[in-house]
Amino acid sequence: MTSQTVQTTPIDGQKPGTSGLRKKTAVFRAPGYLENFVQCIFDGTGGAQGKTYVVGGDGRFFNREAIQTIIRMAAGNGAARLIVGQNGILSTPAASNLIRKYKTDGGIILSASHNPGGEDGDFGVKFNAANGGPAPERVTDAIFARTLEIAEYSISDQQSGDIGTIGSYNVGDCRVEVIDPVDDYETLMQELFDFDAIRGLFAGGFRICFDAMHAVTGPYATRILETTLGAPRGSVINATPSPDFGGGHPDPNPVWASELVGIMSGDNAPDFGAASDGDGDRNMVMGKSAFVSPSDSLALLTAYAHLAPAYAGKLAGVARSMPTSRAVDLVAERLGIPCFETPTGWKFFGNLLDAGRATLCGEESAGTGSNHIREKDGLWAVLLWLNILARDGRDIVQLRADHWRSFGRNYYSRHDYEEIPTEAAEALMDALRARLGDLPGREVAGMQVSTADDFAYRDPIGDSLTERQGVRIGFADGSRFVMRLSGTGTQGATLRVYLERFVDRGGDHTQDVQAALGPVIEAAQTLAEITKHTGRRRADVVT
Ligand code: VG1
Ligand code: CO
């Protein structure tokens, strides 16, 4: 085989964030940009010689060309074998499964997840390690370090071949296997859940609306929910992946999944609604006219996971990201299992899952998952819900009301201030950090500050320390807010304000969420001086 070595120079800003490297599509399409980063993935992980990788993406604009480049580069770098999703499609959880199942050396996943796609949208590249999980920080640091000194990359002279047809062929000495993206994933789901019970649920007239948001989950949800489990045709909407996600934000929350919210609030609404994001790793679930917050969903799934075959008697522990509400902590306490608190981003769950310390994990941003893979998994969460509903008999709204009665309710909301000038956002965070020592004891919005800190995480397995992961302000009545800057955006900074208020058993669990959080919202605005720093009076996206 012939391959060429192409001279290049370092490109600024190729630092992976919360979940891979994300940039405007146009940036990724610039000559050498993708090539530099992919070469640094190989170089930063000991080279590609003789290795096997999984390659696929969420189908967004530039997905196919990028995969063809990656195939040629893997071949040029001496990789032995590539497993590629047909047409370049693999959801993030499906890719994680393939990495583990076929014991590969890792995977390259092309996605900017919930960020809009298209020529003017965003693109992204993530590297997952041999455990199937997002590369931990020490690996992304090594990759980034390479981006600062790269001088050349290798690429095969040969074309990448057809990725639209299932089969295999060689690019030079590298074996390329194009596989059905859904088959192995479906097999795994069948092993975890009681598919007969779910079939019975649908046969009994239970109705679901699953909004795939024109993103990668469409083919997975259609096959599993409609073909295998017998949900009526049309239960999955927006099921065909489109390069720009139909012009929308493939972000499963009540703002961006408004079509689903409309259906679930209308006359004759289905019994259960769900949506997933661009790359299929996140989920939103709803009952009739009822949005179930991801934090509540995590708590409920933990409380009822024993109804699914894979988890009966098998919950070793749970883990949640720090800003996620503490509803799941209460469930873990009652179950007598540990509850771990990690920084935002799935990579921090990897060690806990590998060590068998956590079985279920979740984030407030609608990511939920388990030890079945090393990524969050949107359709998995929906199937776990269906398994629970099929076995329990109550509907999701009733189940949640009963849960609050038994545990109390953690009212919860996230307020995002998007595209703030980066300096203004950093000044806000710096000012808040500088005052942390003075805040305890202070009265604000009728509440007293009891704790104020900047979250640092000591990994209990790897012992690494990750600092400055978000400011947490706790109040004497158990309320709290958290502030951090997003690590997935591509333009300016996004300030995320996470708000939580606990109303114990016997309290009023039927309040409007924003009203219930009123004092906490006011306290956050006052203590962080959001308007002064950003000029904004209210958040852009409230979920
Ligand atoms: C966001 C979410 C975080 C999630 C990350 C990747 O990160 O808050 O919980 O893990 O997206 O999810 P940030 O840094 O913007 O807050 V995905 O589905 O984009 O891979
Ligand atoms: Co995602």
Key terms:
543 residues, alpha/beta, Alpha-D-Glucose-1,6-Bisphosphate, Chain A, domain 3, TATA-Binding Protein, 3 domains, seven-stranded mixed sheet, seven-stranded antiparallel sheet, 18 helices, 27 strands, 33% helix, binds alpha-D-glucose-1-phosphate-6-vanadate, binds cobalt (II) ion
Structure class: alpha/beta
User: What oligomeric state do these chains adopt?
Assistant: single chain
Beta-strand content estimate:
25-35%
Strand order of the largest sheet: 2-6-5-3-4-9-8
Q: Can you say what the CATH homologous superfamily of the largest domain is? A: Alpha-D-Glucose-1,6-Bisphosphate, subunit A, domain 3
The dominant shape is globular
CATH architecture tag of the largest domain: 3-Layer(aba) Sandwich
Bound molecules: alpha-D-glucose-1-phosphate-6-vanadate, cobalt (II) ion
CATH topology of the largest domain: Alpha-D-Glucose-1,6-Bisphosphate, Chain A, domain 3
Low-confidence stretches: none
Helix residue percentage: 25-40%
CATH class of the largest domain: Alpha Beta
CA distance, first residue to last residue:
53 Å
Overview of the structural elements:
With 543 residues, the chain is an alpha/beta fold. It folds into three domains: 3-181, 3-Layer(aba) Sandwich (Alpha-D-Glucose-1,6-Bisphosphate, Chain A, domain 3); 185-407, Alpha-D-Glucose-1,6-Bisphosphate, subunit A, domain 3 (Alpha-D-Glucose-1,6-Bisphosphate, Chain A, domain 3); 409-542, TATA-Binding Protein, CATH 3.30.310. Helix 7 packs across helix 13 and helix 10 runs parallel beside helix 11 (327-335). It is globular and about 70 Å long. Cobalt (II) ion binds next to loops.
